[in-house]
Design brief:
heterodimer; A: 383 residues; mainly beta; 4-stranded antiparallel beta sheet; B: 195 residues; mainly alpha; disordered C terminus; WD40_G-protein_beta-like (chain A)
């Protein structure tokens, strides 16, 4: 086929795709009769009111000598692993603030870390394009360092995010600057599936974040520099299940809503959004008005939902950490203005497994744990 | 000889360098072919699957309702409790607010009759009783009522580090104790998290 004919076909196909996308957009618009805030307010919901001491900084975890880039809680036993520009992973006891492990990494340019479901191993990855696994029970080497147990190689770009599949110590999901996500078998070091890349429905730019559905661990979402989020089924690697449009900037963070039917995103465009997983509907935008001439709209770096989904915690590049009331789409608290708040960009945040504490990590080299300090019922025991 | 001489005068020209043949731009054509294939795939996907999937979908309000119902049916340790107040209390509260403001020394004890008093423990004051009348704004350091003091940190429901029993941590300044279901001891933190 001649190049000229190919170019004509390319132009025609592009026009057809654009036309179909416009039709899709109009169909969705027709179904958009309200959003979460509109529905909630019409049913009498009002914003949560936080008192000045309702959410307080309970702990400051100091020890890193570089910017904190990532953190993850254990599913139990209340420990936190953090990754920093100083080239170390530190494992903290959240209750006592003590460091239980400090792991010096071969590659200092780490971008992500994660705790295994059994809390015995941690994984990390970064600019070395590989994911390293460390067993916390390993004997230290002559230099006092924990040796790496396994290195997962195969990505052709930096590893931006990693997460263990819930309740499966042997399955790890990573996202990468090579536009793919990969599901790994940690015991063999082999790639089980590659999501995206050569397949047409994959991301068309760096993938920055992943979140696995805790209600159905076969499903996960990814966020990318192509301004979309995509839903994947780990059993069908050849194509994305659905693509979610709406953001106008890199999608830096994705997190499933507690019900497993929706997920949130955070973006360079300064907004967070709530999407319905099954239908693709954009249910709500969480953002604040900015002047058109304002080029310094803080970007959303990280998000987390409270255990009921009522609160959306969003970390921003300017050090703010907004607490959004998800039902009425209003900011009810800014942790960045509270006593003992961070002094730099919030780079990561995460909720403890029981939802009672939030940990934030920052470029100020610290991590902070926030908890509820107001009036509550006392619960004597948990089963 | 003359033929040989004639042949020598008609010798072929010496070889000269030639430009390489013009090869077709295979990379560009291949790239275009791939792109056209991807676009055709996307046409099929958008047309057949995406548009069809919208048929029969309910409007967004239905899914917003699901979100509201889910949030409303789940407790959240980080969400403040709200109490409904009866209208009849408003006048009383207004009156006490006026009195407390002017006679703060009356309000600042644990038996403060100020109906809007709400014991608030701040991390700073947990070692001393933290009973504080919200309207008076004056802390009382000699509180004797245990119920006045609340642990200021919310990591109460975290597991005991020793036995992961899910036992509730208790503050040594707090009269209520934790009984661990697994180890039958007060296994939780022996000191206030806020110290």
């Amino acid at each position: 086929m001649y190049v000229a004919e190919l170019k004509e076909r390319h132009m025609a196909a592009t026009a057809t795709v654009n036309g179909l996308r416009e039709r899709l957009k109009q169909r969705r618009q027709a179904l958009l009769d309200t959003d979460v805030a509109g529905y909630a307010k019409s049913h009498g919901k009002t914003a949560i009111s936080f008192g000045s001491t309702d959410l307080v900084c309970c702990r400051t975890l100091q020890g890193h000598t570089g910017k904190v880039y990532s953190l993850d809680w254990t599913p139990e036993r209340n420990r936190i692993v953090s990754a920093s520009q100083d080239g170390r992973l530190i494992v903290w006891n959240a209750l006592t603030s003590q460091k239980t492990h400090a792991i010096k990494l071969y590659c200092a340019w780490v971008m992500t870390c994660a705790f295994a479901p059994n809390s015995q191993s941690v994984a990390c990855g970064g600019l070395d394009s590989a994911c390293s696994i460390f067993n916390l029970n390993s004997q230290v080497d002559r230099d006092g360092n924990i040796p790496v147990s396994r290195i997962l190689t195969g990505h052709k770009g930096y590893v931006s995010s990693c997460q263990y599949v819930p309740d499966q110590e042997t399955r790890l999901l990573t996202s990468s600057g090579d536009r793919t996500c990969v599901l790994w078998d940690v015991t063999t070091g082999q790639r089980i599936s590659v999501f995206g890349g050569e397949f047409p429905s994959g991301h068309t730019a760096d993938v920055l974040s992943v979140s696995i559905n805790s209600s159905n661990s076969n499903m996960f979402v990814s966020g990318s520099c192509d301004a979309t989020a995509r839903l994947w089924d780990t059993r069908i690697a050849s194509r994305a299940v659905r693509t979610y449009h709406g953001h106008v900037g890199d999608v830096n963070a994705v997190k499933f809503f507690p019900d497993g039917q929706r997920f949130g995103t955070g973006s360079d465009d300064g907004t967070c959004r709530l999407f319905d997983m099954r239908t693709g509907h954009q249910l709500q935008v969480y953002g604040q008005q900015h002047d058109n001439n304002d080029n310094d709209v803080p970007i959303v770096t990280s998000i987390a939902f409270s255990i009921s989904g009522r609160l959306l915690f969003a970390g921003y590049s300017n050090g703010d950490c907004y607490v959004w009331d998800t039902l009425v789409a209003e900011v009810v608290l800014n942790l960045g203005t509270l006593q003992n708040s961070h002094e730099g960009r919030i780079s990561c945040l995460g909720l403890s497994s029981d939802g009672s504490a939030l940990c934030t990590g920052s470029w100020d080299k610290n991590l902070k744990i926030w908890g509820f300090g107001g009036h509550r019922k006392v619960i004597h025991s948990l089963r | 000889m003359e033929a040989a001489a004639a042949a020598g005068s008609e010798a072929p020209p010496p070889p000269a360098p030639r430009s390489p043949p013009g090869y077709p731009d295979l990379c560009g054509r291949h790239r275009l072919q791939v792109e056209v294939q991807i676009l055709n795939w996307e046409i099929g996907f958008l047309g057949q699957e995406e548009l069809e999937s919208l048929e029969g979908l309910q409007s967004v309000s239905g899914y917003c309702k699901e979100v509201n119902e889910y949030v409303g049916s789940h407790a959240d340790p980080l969400v403040p409790l709200t109490k409904k107040r009866r209208k009849s209390c408003r006048i009383w509260r207004w009156l006490w607010a006026k009195l407390c403001f002017n006679m703060s020394w009356i309000c600042c004890f644990c038996g403060c009759p100020c109906p809007q008093r709400r014991p608030i423990c701040t991390c700073r004051h947990v070692k001393n009783c933290c009973c504080r009348c919200r309207h008076c704004g004056c802390p009382n350091k000699n509180c004797w009522k245990a119920s006045c003091c609340r642990p200021c940190c919310s990591l109460r429901s975290l597991s005991c580090p020793e036995c992961s029993c899910g036992c509730v941590w208790s503050c040594s300044k707090f009269t209520e104790t934790c009984s661990c279901l697994k180890c039958s001891s007060t296994c939780c933190m022996s000191r206030c998290l806020c110290e």
